[in-house]
């Protein structure tokens, strides 16, 4: 019987179930995953929760005068439509976020940017106060922020510590009045049981952070400095260090990208003249005692010295940049010479330190 069993043919596998009309169908490949960006182009947004923090939406630069706006109760499509519709005319949306960096924060920045693009709101400000959070989410949020044109504020009495520094790195401009602190960035759920395992984890995180900082125009020395500070401690960066490492002011990577775009469109000579104009503007139009409402007029008077408006690229005139970034009510007041009461609202996005918080703007004007 044993020999008979050995010679028996192997049992055939069970036949696949066949439904009526399916005999001649070619198997269909699995559908490709839909990106978050494509999902947000529609009106059905999957559920997302702003856990670990709170967000308020404002259409104003001047938070001492106008406050931080209404609390955003939900991240669904129609909640953001309601919250951001008043910002369309102003052309400015400011998100005051206080809390941890997590999946909810990433969803917040992605969804506000998607709605701002849909509503054609060009100026987007992330007004942040965060002690840190998840490294992986900070990298995800930062990559999204880098592609969607955000200015980032850390205003007086606010902080940006730990993983928040990665978010700060991604802004087109960074305006800092509060404290920025760093330490070792740990994996969210470390499985290390020895120094060697912890070292391998930290090395992997450090490489991710270095690559991220490099593509955002920030010195990779920041990552090395982080590694010297224990996770339970904190090292506050000085204003000089923030400048030195590329964490304050204009993002160097974005500035280079803008120059490349302009050179491709308008030529190298245009870019050289524009840079000369910007240096002269900083010296003559942003000097002591200058109000921000006077900047468009000052830029208009100055630009002729550098051959602007340019015949080949009239739409890229630097003076126009300062004028169109001034909120509409202040444009009217500036033209009438009545704008001195609202210096913060008149802060142009194109100037050095664009979209600075009013506290910093007031100092510059004194």
From TrEMBL:
InterPro entries: ClpP/crotonase-like_dom_sf
Keywords in alphabetical order: Lipoprotein
Listed Basic and acidic residues bias regions: 357-366
Chain residue ranges for the region called Disordered: 1-34, 317-366
Residue stretches of biased makeup (Low complexity): 332-354
Domain of life: Bacteria
Protein name as it appears in the record: Lipoprotein
């Amino acid at each position: 019987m044993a020999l008979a069993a050995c010679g028996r043919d192997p049992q055939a596998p069970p036949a696949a179930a066949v439904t009526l009309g399916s005999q001649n169908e070619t198997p269909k490949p699995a559908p490709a995953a839909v990106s978050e960006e494509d999902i947000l182009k529609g009106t059905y947004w999957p559920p997302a929760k702003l856990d670990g923090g709170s967000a308020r939406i404002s259409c104003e630069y001047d938070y001492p005068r106008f406050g931080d706006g209404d609390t955003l109760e939900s991240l669904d499509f129609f909640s953001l439509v309601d919250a951001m519709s008043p910002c369309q005319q102003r052309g400015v949306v400011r998100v005051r976020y206080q809390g941890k960096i997590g999946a909810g924060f990433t969803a917040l920045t992605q969804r506000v940017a998607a709605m701002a693009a849909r509503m054609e709101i060009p100026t987007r400000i992330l007004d942040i106060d965060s002690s840190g959070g998840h490294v992986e989410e900070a990298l995800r949020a930062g990559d999204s922020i880098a592609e969607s044109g955000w200015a980032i504020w850390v205003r007086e009495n606010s902080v940006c510590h730990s993983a928040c520094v990665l978010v700060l790195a991604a802004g087109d401009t960074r305006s800092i009045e509060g404290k920025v602190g760093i330490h070792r960035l740990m994996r969210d759920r470390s499985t290390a049981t020895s120094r060697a395992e912890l070292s391998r984890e930290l090395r992997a995180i450090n490489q991710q952070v270095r690559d991220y900082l490099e593509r955002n125009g920030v010195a990779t020395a920041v990552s090395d400095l982080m590694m010297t500070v224990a996770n339970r401690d904190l090292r506050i960066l000085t204003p000089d260090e923030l400048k030195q490492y590329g964490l304050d002011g204009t993002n160097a990577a974005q500035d280079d990208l803008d120059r490349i775009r302009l050179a491709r469109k308008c030529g190298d000579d245009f870019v050289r003249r524009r840079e000369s104009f910007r240096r002269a503007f900083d010296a003559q139009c942003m000097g002591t005692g200058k109000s921000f409402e006077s900047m468009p007029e000052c830029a208009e008077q100055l630009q002729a010295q550098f051959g602007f408006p340019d015949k080949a690229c009239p739409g890229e005139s630097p003076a126009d940049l300062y004028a169109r970034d001034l909120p509409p009510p202040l444009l009217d007041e500036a033209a009438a010479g009545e704008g001195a009461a609202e210096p913060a609202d008149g802060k142009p996005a194109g100037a050095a330190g664009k979209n600075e918080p009013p506290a910093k703007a007031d100092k510059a004007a004194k």
